[in-house]
């Protein structure tokens, strides 16, 4: 039954978190794969035999650091968490919200209240009912838990009333983005009984998704089996899942070729090798975009001419050429070209122009070499070296500093200069707010926001997604956000996946990995 998205007239992880290493690291990782291959293969065989069916052996560069979805659901690892947690909505291949735990929903006449109608008879893997009370508990926990990564996404929700299977969300404003927002990424729903102890939930996830966790080794491995009580279990044809943390990127292809794994996210540098090995390499559309984050509350970025100088000093095409191996494209926005929120009118507002960059620095009162910056990042990242080289060409000296605890000063807005990469939100309005809003977690210059942005994003929320002028209104908000001096976007690339030919094609839901209808042949 299709969801009714009408009025009562009736959808952060830093890219450099991916594992990298030099020749020594690669050699050690390759040796480790060879050593573990028999053990892992045996484990997969035992699991398949015990479960009597097909086993997905997925190695992921984004193995969840946290299995509490309130803590870990905002970054790229939401895809792995979606194995065990379901949400009110999910997205289809067009990126639009469709039913998941909620079978339908409707807004009131004004647009400041939305009621989600849950499917009857559902339960979490601990036997607790999936009802409106569970939805209310999930939202309130995401808003209030101290280590929640989701509270900034839920500011439009004032209160929730639980009425049996009907969850009534009272909003702080008219907001037609809610069904789009409350999908797999922002509100994966855990059993409220299990969530009473979030630390325990983090080690023993309890959801209502397509699989249940039977074994979890934090940071290393998770074993799951099909959940017979999942609402769409009839369309889940995978019986067992072995999820492991991926080794060095250079060893993933050999692991896939030898059968240690049959599914993996893939670094673009390995795509050619994967194809030559006879693996399926496919592009999963996404909302990924990388940027330089500037803090305009700190010198020298408190000078607008310095900010513009950095903008004109960045050669976006070099990022694409050196990092994406033909799979990426330049972007000066938090969206890839072709996405509904991408604003063509803002394209190339600050093209690569090192001469103009130098001129602006002179006008700002800085001689060549006078500006010295620390670029703080969580791990070695080739992006940082490109930035360092490009800014050196205009007379700005950059020192790269790796701080594994980078996140603390970044989200506290204490850093001056850093890199970030977004995987976006299913709600484009929320992506914009996260980057440009005064409380946006990805806005290193908080509480600063560009003039006119607040009004533009409010208009987006007030516009139903099926309104004829929705795209125009949304692109205007993107245009308003891009007036911000806090972010300089560089390039975008899709998600690359490599898999064994024994695994059938996956639905191409943008940014998501959906196992509905996927089969694994006996060749596995």
Automatic annotation (TrEMBL):
Residues 97-435 form the Solute-binding protein family domain. Pfam families: SBP_bac_5. Keywords: Signal, Transport. Residues 1-42 form the signal peptide. Residues 1-21 are annotated as: Disordered. CDD domains: PBP2_NikA_DppA_OppA_like_9 (cd08496). GO terms for molecular function: peptide transmembrane transporter activity. SUPFAM superfamilies: Periplasmic binding protein-like II. GO terms for biological process: peptide transport. Residues 7-17 have a biased composition (Basic residues). Gene3D superfamilies: Dipeptide-binding Protein, Domain 1, Dipeptide-binding Protein, Domain 3, Periplasmic binding protein-like II. InterPro entries: SBP_5, SBP_5_dom. Belongs to the bacterial solute-binding protein 5 family. This is Peptide ABC transporter permease. It comes from Streptomyces fagopyri.
């Amino acid at each position: 039954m299709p969801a009714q998205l009408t009025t009562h007239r009736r959808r952060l992880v830093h890219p450099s978190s991916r594992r990298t290493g030099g020749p020594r690291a690669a050699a050690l990782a390759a040796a480790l794969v060879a050593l573990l291959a028999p053990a892992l293969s045996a484990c997969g065989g035992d699991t398949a035999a015990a479960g009597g069916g097909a086993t997905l052996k997925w190695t992921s560069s984004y193995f969840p650091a946290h299995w509490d979805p309130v803590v870990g659901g905002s970054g790229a690892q939401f895809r792995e968490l979606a194995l065990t947690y379901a949400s009110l909505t999910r997205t289809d291949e067009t990126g639009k919200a469709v039913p998941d735990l909620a079978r339908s929903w409707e807004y009131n006449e004004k647009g400041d209240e939305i009621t989600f109608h849950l499917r009857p008879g559902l339960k979490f893997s601990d036997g607790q009912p999936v009802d409106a009370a569970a939805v209310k508990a999930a939202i309130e926990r995401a808003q209030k838990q101290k280590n929640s990564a989701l509270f900034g996404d839920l500011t439009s929700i004032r209160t929730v009333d639980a009425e049996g299977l009907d969850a009534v969300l009272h909003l702080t404003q008219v907001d037609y983005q809610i069904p789009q927002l409350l999908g797999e990424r922002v509100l994966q729903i855990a059993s409220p009984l299990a969530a009473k102890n979030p630390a325990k939930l983090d080690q023993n996830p309890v959801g209502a998704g397509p699989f249940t966790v039977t074994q979890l080794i934090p940071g290393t491995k998770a074993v799951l089996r099909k959940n017979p009580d999942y609402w769409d279990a009839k369309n889940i044809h995978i019986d067992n899942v072995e999820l492991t943390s991926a080794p060095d990127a250079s060893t993933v292809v050999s692991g896939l070729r030898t059968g240690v794994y049959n599914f993996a996210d893939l670094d673009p540098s390995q795509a050619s090798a994967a194809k030559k090995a006879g693996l399926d390499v496919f592009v999963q559309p996404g909302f990924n975009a990388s940027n330089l984050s500037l803090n305009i509350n700190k010198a020298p970025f408190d000078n607008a001419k310095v900010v513009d100088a950095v903008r004109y000093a960045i050669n976006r095409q070099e990022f694409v050429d050196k990092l994406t191996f033909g799979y990426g494209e330049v972007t000066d926005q938090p969206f890839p070209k072709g996405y509904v929120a991408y604003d063509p009118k803002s394209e190339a507002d600050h093209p690569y122009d090192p001469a103009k960059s130098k001129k602006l620095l002179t006008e700002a009162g800085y001689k060549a070499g006078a500006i010295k910056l620390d670029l703080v990042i969580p791990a070695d990242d080739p992006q940082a070296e490109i930035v360092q080289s490009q800014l050196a060409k205009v007379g700005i000296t950059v020192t790269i500093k790796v701080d594994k605890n980078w996140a603390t000063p970044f989200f506290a807005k204490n850093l001056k200069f850093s890199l970030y990469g977004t995987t976006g939100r299913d709600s484009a309005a929320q992506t914009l707010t996260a980057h440009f809003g005064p409380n946006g977690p990805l806005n290193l210059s908080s509480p600063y926001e560009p003039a006119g942005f607040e009004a533009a994003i409010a208009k987006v929320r007030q516009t139903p997604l099926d309104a004829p002028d929705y795209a125009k209104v949304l692109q205007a908000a993107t245009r308003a956000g891009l007036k911000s001096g806090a972010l300089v976007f560089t390039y975008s690339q899709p998600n690359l996946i490599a898999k064994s030919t024994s695994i059938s094609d996956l639905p191409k839901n943008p940014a998501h990995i959906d196992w509905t209808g996927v089969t694994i042949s006996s060749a596995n």
